[in-house]
Write a structure and sequence with these properties.
The chain has a domain at 18-50. It has helices spanning 18-26, 37-46. It is mainly α. Helix content is 34%, strand content 0%. The chain has two helices and no strands.
C-alpha cells in the first residue's frame, strides 16, 4: 500500500481428494487446476490415479 503496509490475504482452500482426482481423470475432465503443472506432468508421466501414461 502507499503507506508501506502489507495486506496479507489467505488463499481460498480447495477440498482435494485422491478419489476426486481419479473421478475427474476417469470422466475425461482435467484436474490441472487442482495442483501445479509440474504435479500434473508427473501424474501423467507415471500413470498415477488411473491416468494412462502420456495423456495430455
Amino acid at each position: 500500500t502507499p503507506a508501506g503496509r502489507a495486506l496479507i490475504l489467505a488463499p481460498p482452500l480447495l477440498d482435494i481428494s485422491a478419489t476426486g482426482i481419479r473421478d475427474r481423470i476417469a470422466g475425461d475432465r482435467s484436474p490441472r487446476y487442482l495442483f501445479p503443472d509440474a504435479v500434473w506432468d508427473e501424474i501423467r508421466r507415471l500413470g498415477l490415479y488411473g491416468c494412462p501414461p502420456g495423456r495430455r
